[in-house]
Amino acid sequence: MKYIVIKFLLLSLLLLRNEANAQVSLYRNVLPNGNIKKEYVEAKNNKNEVQVVFSGLFLFYKTFFSSQDLTVCTFTPSCSEYGILAVKKFGMVKGGIMTMDRLTRCNGLSPQNYEFDKTNMLLKDDPRVIPTVPVVSTIK
Amino acid sequence: MRILVLLFISFATFGQDIFNYENSRKYGDYLLKSGQFELAGKEFERLVYFAPDNDTLKTNLLRAYRLSNQTSLGIAKLPVLYNNPSKVPFSSALEYAKLQMQNQSWSAARDFWNQNENFSADDKVLLNVTSDIFNNNFKEARTTLALIKSTDNELGVGYKSILEKETHKKSPGLAALMSAVVPGSGKAYSKNWKDGIVSLFFTAGMAFQSYRSFNKFGVNNHRGWIYGGIGLGFYLGNIYGGVKSTKDFNRKKINALQHEASALFNTYY
Amino acid sequence: MKRVLFLILITNAFGSFGQGLESTFRFANTLYEQKSYQNAVEAYKRVLFFDTLSVYGPEVYPKIADCLFSLKKYQESASYFDLAYFSTQDSVLKDAYILKKISCFLILQQYDYAEVELLGMDETTDPKQQADKDFNEAILRFAKQEYDLSEQMFKKIVADTSLVNELFEKNKKISKISPKKAKVLSMIMPGLGQLYVGDVKNGLNSFLLSTGLLALGLRSAFINNPLDAAIATLPWFQRYYQGGYKKAELIAVAKIQEKRYKIYNQLLDEVDKNATLSK
């Protein structure tokens, strides 16, 4: 009997604790947690060997070179991300040529040609996006 | 007698049910007007269930789906609302056509409005011209627009002036040729001369380095080949870039016209 | 006769915000109690629309705000708490709504808005509300880096003040890490600043990259000619050298944030324990 009562008390204490946790846990992330590690989704979901090799190169560049670099690219996605995305979508030859072209365009001299991303103050240039004009108004 | 009247009124108001047809309709209209399109969709689903023969409600349901960007849901809804797609009444049919156009499923959209009986011949012409303009098919658009019966139709007149504005484009082939001869000139041709100069600089720089390395270290040394390889990459990239820049140049001109067409379309329909 | 008329008018008045409205409101309340918050919000919004006499407002606004809070839509929730605040005259309720609004702003990391609300709040007589207010203020001061004020507030809430003292002592040590110093150290020798903050991986990486490029440049300067070497390697060296010391500063800032986050969460653990004990 005593055992049961003690067990019950302990359990109820645990439950109470959970409830209190719910109150305070809302405030756990009020401060920035200082995590500056990035995750590169571009290098995931590789479909063939070529993609695996290029993703490996991309990750190598990102971890050992780009991590020590300033944000020098004027675009979002950056040139290396553009490269891996283009190779994945258009294959090694066309993707590679597109990336070479992109490297020459990455000069910041003609911002009028691109849309502007306000969140990170960079120009938008994504190899996957085909620009279209919406036909139908979205407000009426 | 007066008491009876008062009693009647009080009972009448007592029975007010905010989920009945009248009130739901009021609320649905309010949701649609205030921009809460997803909630409006749910409301009109219920209303259409209440009154399965009301076309205004069906139109509003389709509109709620379109404005809340649930285009595929809306498109799947039409066969449930109407048995025969060729007999869909005008307002619902127009809303459905808009849904299809927003979803960019052009061939399905064309099939739908061409077989519908409630669109007039002129409506069909105008919708076909719209689809041609947005598919970048201006030649087809001109021949289709010539079929219109009422020549003073405002949308028809507007489209006509847009089609006339479509002037001669720059040729991507020429840009490729120019880029192949002088790197960067293809980009300069489509008025991106800054990018063109950078292209020229990169390609020429690499070619020069490669030439120097071959001269100095001979053909068996790796340096010349590396510089040459990168240079070749920049050269090919420059040809691609010239074509792309020219296509972008053309696209921007056409996009401006398409924006104009979209504004006209949205004021007319 | 007059009495009968009066009765009828009264039923009439009740009738006009009739059964449907009342039952919908009750339905929304049960949804709310069953924690089906999205559906509850929809039902409450319907009540608000048909509530032509604006009687349900004071009850519905805080409920919608609570639902949105539970749905983690904090920005919308804050604006509904605002509506709730203006719909009531009761000062205790008003304070409760302001406190919830402060919570929203804190979670959204909009510290300045939270501070404005906190300063606009009157003295409360309710002890639980006072405790809530102190808790919010403790968090806010910590987030705004006013650590002395924050310490005072945490001491009010946590019974074991020696622990709080200890944690704030640790917190003071964090302030000694200087991003500027990390930057200067990395300028003197690439990677040193990163090592100073404790990031060995990036320190080594930066050191190897910069010195490697420098060595490559020097080697080619001796073997070939200096101009050629400078053209080939200097731009790259400059890029990674400059990148290295600027990154050192950023890494230092992030490190400080990480350590503060840890201390802050330990403080919250203490508050949590206290809350359990007081219950």
Could you characterize what this model shows?
The complex is a heterotrimer of chains A (140), B (269) and C (279). Chain A is mainly α. Chain A has 3 helices and 3 strands. Chain A has helices spanning 2-25, 49-64, 79-105; strands at 75-76, 115-117, 122-124. A 3-stranded mixed sheet of chain A has the order 1-3-2. In chain A, helix 2 crosses helix 3. Chain B folds into 3 domains: 18-119, Tetratricopeptide repeat domain (Serine Threonine Protein Phosphatase 5, Tetratricopeptide repeat, Alpha Horseshoe), CATH 1.25.40; 124-166, no CATH class; 173-259. Chain C has 14 helices and no strands. Chain C is 84% helix and 0% strand. Chain C is mostly helical. Chain C folds into 2 domains: 17-160, Alpha Horseshoe (Serine Threonine Protein Phosphatase 5, Tetratricopeptide repeat); 179-278. Chain C starts with a helix and ends with a helix. Residues 5-19 of chain C have low confidence and may be disordered. Chains in contact: A-B, A-C, B-C. Chains A and B meet through helix 3 of A and helix 6, helix 13 and helix 14 of B.
Annotate the secondary structure layout.
The complex is a heterotrimer of chains A (140), B (269) and C (279).
Chain A: H1 2-25, H2 49-64, E1 75-76, H3 79-105, E2 115-117, E3 122-124
Parallel strand pairs in A: 1-3
Antiparallel strand pairs in A: 2-3
Chain B: H1 2-14, H2 21-33, H3 37-50, H4 55-67, H5 71-81, H6 90-102, H7 106-115, H8 121-134, H9 138-145, H10 154-165, H11 172-181, H12 185-189, H13 193-217, H14 222-268
Chain C: H1 2-16, H2 19-33, H3 37-50, H4 57-70, H5 74-87, H6 91-107, H7 111-120, H8 127-143, H9 147-157, H10 161-174, H11 179-188, H12 192-197, H13 200-223, H14 226-278
